[in-house]
Amino acid sequence: MSRPLENLKKFFVALVQKLKKPGRRDKKLFQVFKLTEYISSETTKPVPFVKMHGLGNDFVIFDDRTTDIPTSEKFLQSVANRRRGAGCDQIIILRPAQSSDAHVHMAIYNADGTQVGACGNATRCVANLLFKELAAEKCVIETIAGLLPCWREGELVAVDFGAPRLKWAQIPLTREVDTLLVPVTAGGLLAPCCVNMGNPHAVFFVPDIAGVNLAEIGPKLEHDPMFPERCNIEIAQILSPDHIRMRVWERGSGITEACGSGACATLVAAVRRGLCGRRATITLDGGDLVIEWRPDDHVIMIGSATLAYHGIFDAQGAGLA
Question: Three-class SS of residue 233?
């Protein structure tokens, strides 16, 4: 419940207590009871959602076009909680698009309640929903980072992420440095290549990905002073010119099984370093994505999008009421 409504509810509850005196059970008391009941029910009523995942990177998707969805950190954190809520890496809220070129606006929130500009796996999931809703093979999804054209690629979903942002101020970094070799270190990792794919990424290339304790160094690197907006951290091992193994620590969520924008950033970083070709399979903990950095500078991601189940989120049951 938002703070103004919470305060209003407290006021009326207190008023009800004052009116609970002999001889005061009149029409006014009845009206106050009804208003208090209304405030409580309207702000804690159950809301429907869809649970989906892309390679194990999972999302709770709400449709704000049909139901008003709260966006307080407390609400979002309770949804993401894997013991008391629905449990997910990110919460997705669909709203009417502001651009006439888009079919829907997708707002993306991390498990900690912070909003972000891009999520490749969520984009594929939402696109899959829109294909069915629109009875179409193509759609355009609007985010705060821009418009993302999507289309079916056989049984998979393709997303055009547009051109990567490679300048230090676009990442962003706290000072001007070469984004190909950024002076950041932790746990033996040295000088990542930084890329912005709608959100900031730092890609570290290592000879043996199994030897990196991502759970330990991930949060340190995410909060490094070089990254004023924090950063997603990828560690990557080149297996061949067209195959990369990657793991990710996502800003605001921690280790996840996959990160679509991170896979895009990893391919771009590897091409910039001369480590692979412009099309490669990125193997994440949850499975494979195919990423291509085309000659027109656009980065294309191809992968699966899986429906897990439909559900109802009860804010009262999650301890919000």
Answer: strand
